Amino acid sequence: MEKLVICGGRRLSGEIDVQGAKNSALPILAATVLIKGESVIHNCPDLSDIDAAIKILKHLGCKVKKENNTLMVDSREISCYNIPDTLMREMRSSIVFLGSVLGRMGKAVMSSPGGCDIGLRPIDLHLSSLRTLGIKVDECHGTLICTKEKPIVGGVVSLSFPSVGATENIMLACALSEGRTVILNAAREPEIKDLADFLNSCGCNIEIGSHGTVAISGVSELHECEHHVISDRIASLTFMSAVAASGGDVILKKTDTSSFMSVIPIFEQMGCEINNRGSSLRIKMHKRPEAVLDIRTMPYPGFPTDAQAPVTAVLSIAKGTSVLVENIFENRFKHIPELQRMGAKIKIEGKVAIIDGTAQLYGAKVISPDLRGGAALVVAGLSAAGTTVVEQISHIDRGYENIEKSLSALGADIKRVKV
Ligand code: EPZ
What we know:
This protein folds into 2 domains: 2-19 and 231-418, UDP-n-acetylglucosamine1-carboxyvinyl-transferase, Chain (Alpha-beta prism); 22-225, Enolpyruvate transferase domain (UDP-n-acetylglucosamine1-carboxyvinyl-transferase, Chain), CATH 3.65.10.10. The longest helix is centred in the middle third of the chain and has 14 residues, at 233-246. It has 14 helices and 24 strands. The chain has helices spanning 22-31, 48-60, 85-90, 97-105, 124-132, 164-175, 190-201, 233-246, 264-269, 308-315, 335-341, 371-383, 394-397, 403-409, and strands spanning 2-7, 12-17, 38-42, 63-67, 70-74, 82-83, 107-111, 136-140, 143-147, 155-158, 180-184, 205-208, 214-217, 225-228, 248-253, 273-276, 280-285, 294-296, 321-325, 345-349, 352-356, 365-367, 387-391, 413-418. A hairpin with a 3-residue loop joins strand 16 and strand 17 (280-285).
């Protein structure tokens, strides 16, 4: 067990490279199962969720080599189509292997991924979409058995909600198919385009439409390719939150500001000075943040739910009252009781958080409730008076590569300590 010990109150300065996108690398690693050859994936972040995906790939029969942030996945010999519960439970987003294992093997058997820290995380849209495509889907005692009894010949799949995971699973199931499948009301997150770019580099033909449509013209075989994963927009927004809360002057490099354009105005409303240079961004903050009256998390391109917790930490010390509505997940305020232990004045009314900004938080012992909630506690600790100890940081390591090294490089006093 490890914890992070943070002595708050230090301004941040310097520059850091933003990691590759966890939520792009994971579906792309799942997609390598479709290729009867070697895929080379660059800019893969070094995270425990990536390690969990590698375990699944090896279980399926893939050979995986890792050189720093490059993964080589050789999927010539896929030997099985079932993923055991132990591996499924290590990472909630293992469900994204459903489409690729089904696409390659014609069958997929795996346990239904449980809910997780932020909500029930149902997969009804995944399964109803596969049934629409003619896949036989059986669920018994928590096990999913999906069988492609006949080739997928294309059609239209309309999603009642633009689910990221469901969109990815449909793309993966249809990449090796006949005919043309069109997804209506598909997710529009940048990670969807990155997955399409990877599959198209392997010979598929996927078009991302302008009105939330994704069209997949399946092929009989996909070939080897090399791919560079996009920058992690949530990591960028997390480091921007750290600067907004602690003050300072930081340059984010290897970012992609086009993937979070809707959020930059929020940081400017908080009082940050942003110099947006596309693949780099300079953020300066020399005063106490201002409150932001109305933030609502929405599917892309709206305010991303994954940035809600870190931004809440900033608004906890803002001048004035902010109102934040979490529209995507039903249980994504678990960082708030921990922030309250640090002196935050936040009221929760259902999916609404009313944040009455206080001049300063004070250090405390807090427990990371989930990935982005843990990041929020780090952001709060950086600005708080005194020492903050964040426990259960394995949640944070799922999505942030060496978070304490990146922040120390910017002048933060943060150490990883073995408990
Ligand atoms: C992806 O999760 C991301 N994870 C999440 O990031 C992110 O918050 C989310 O998309 C939204 O952007 C990965 O990409 C690995 P959804 P996913 O399907 O695919 C409901 C992080 O912190 N829903 O778009 O699970 C669901 O309950 C993680 O990096 C159904 O009802 O998100 C939720 O309320 C957290 N039925 C909403 O849709 C379904 O079949 C959004 O879910 C599927 C989803």
